[in-house]
């Protein structure tokens, strides 16, 4: 079943005029016709059954019918990720969406060698991955900021600091004694954090250092592994501990 | 420090003639010169410090000096992976090497739509990822076989069967009461296993069904997540339970 993320309000009998990109996707790529069914969600109103009411090459209208799943949100989990090469950053965004992340916050650190990324492109990848993975919301991709600036306005949520250079304990062991609730995961660039950054991070009361095993991981592997372990320990892969984003 | 996987025996004062690809990499890509140092490993003799003794564009000779790390092996863990699209299969092989897998066994299932892959290309990716990740061996990539045929000659090692369609318990919960030792992880194709395959797998005494959370995961995400959770529960990310491959 095709799933589409739309900006429109969803309610019984709502009519939706899809934008050109989604219209082309349905009409030209997926060859859908009047009467064919799709699912739509907007991050607020749950998932709805809709049928194609009018099909043009560049404009498709949907007729929204019944709510199939009430709105739920995943855990309140941010991924703070140092800018890495485009391909790996795109993989990370796709995987963060599949793994139930709420926000993706690119950061510039001492050893990143880029200071910008195409946020709109990353956001589009997050939308597509969310449609495919079955979630009812889409993670927000923020503009990159410097790590130092981000930490200055930090909201005190717990920060899982994946520290490959240190003597930290394994992630699962560390998370066993930590509370559920709002969290962030911090993944550094391929060259690691600078000594000054490590020292500053270690001094933050909200930072929880942890290690990701005995081998050197690429940034995309580290991000996926840390998201998985957090979800399995404190997130919605562990129904006994999960706290939903409110 | 550059690390190279070589087929040669490694011992004090050994001389090694690198093949053309590795010679070009050192001389032309990395611009190494006589006297520069590299590390070499072969999966048997540990990791050695070596220096470039002779540098031609297509032939570099190394002089092996001292052993820097004695040989260790990771856990006895196979990844059994249904054939998926080339790009995602290559990602899986890279990540399986980083995550300490011993063998990668592609399989053909009812819903795979390919019956072959370039094993030599996948093996080259496994070598490169192993050099980068710091391990002292390289996972072996086997020729694809049919799932049914593989199960007929199965050696009774435990098989973590990642079953998205079922009512299985979460991976971490399942592994908590399982023994360490030889294991395999089975990841299906994007369309999942057929009902007949699921029934056959569920009937095997060595199969351990488990789920990977509430969202639909692409095959590469599922493989990375399952490898991570296995390593954190029973592998070398959990020093209290890890059993080394012997």
Question: Which tags fit this structure?
Answer:
homodimer, 246 residues, Ribosomal Protein L25, Chain P, Alpha/beta knot, five-stranded mixed β-sheet, 7 helices, 24% strand, elongated
Molecular structure report:
The structure is a homodimer of 246-residue chains. Chain A is of the alpha/beta class and 246 residues long. The first copy, chain A, is 30% helix and 24% strand. In chain A, helix 2 (86-98) runs parallel beside helix 3 and helix 2 (86-98) packs parallel to helix 7 (219-234). Chain A is elongated. Chain A binds chain B through residues 91, 94-95, 98-100, 132-135, 170-173, 212-218, 221, 224-225, 228-229, 231-233, 236-238, and chain B through 91, 94-95, 98-100, 132-135, 170-173, 212-218, 221, 224-225, 228-229, 231-233, 236-238.
């Amino acid at each position: 079943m095709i799933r589409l993320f739309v900006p429109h309000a969803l309610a019984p009998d709502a009519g939706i005029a899809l934008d050109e990109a989604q219209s082309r996707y349905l009409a030209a790529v997926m060859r859908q016709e009047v009467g064919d069914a799709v699912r739509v969600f907007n991050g607020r109103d749950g998932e709805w059954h809709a049928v194609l009411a009018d099909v043009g090459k560049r404009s498709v209208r949907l007729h929204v019918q019944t709510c199939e799943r009430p709105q739920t949100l995943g855990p309140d989990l941010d991924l703070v990720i140092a800018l890495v090469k485009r391909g790996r950053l795109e993989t990370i965004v796709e995987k963060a969406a599949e793994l139930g992340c709420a926000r993706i916050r690119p950061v510039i650190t001492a050893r990143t060698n880029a200071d910008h990324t195409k946020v709109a492109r990353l956001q589009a990848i997050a939308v597509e991955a969310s449609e495919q993975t079955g979630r009812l919301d889409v993670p927000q991709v923020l503009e990159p900021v410097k790590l130092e600036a981000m930490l200055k306005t930090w909201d005190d949520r717990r920060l899982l600091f994946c520290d490959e250079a240190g003597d930290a304990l394994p992630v699962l062991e560390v998370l066993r004694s930590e509370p559920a609730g709002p969290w962030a995961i911090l993944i550094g660039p391929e060259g690691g954090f600078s000594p000054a950054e490590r020292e500053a991070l270690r001094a933050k009361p909200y930072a929880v250092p942890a290690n990701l095993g005995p081998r050197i991981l690429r940034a995309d592997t580290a991000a996926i592994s840390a998201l998985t372990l957090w979800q399995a320990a404190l997130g919605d892969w562990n129904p006994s501990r999960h706290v939903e984003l409110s």
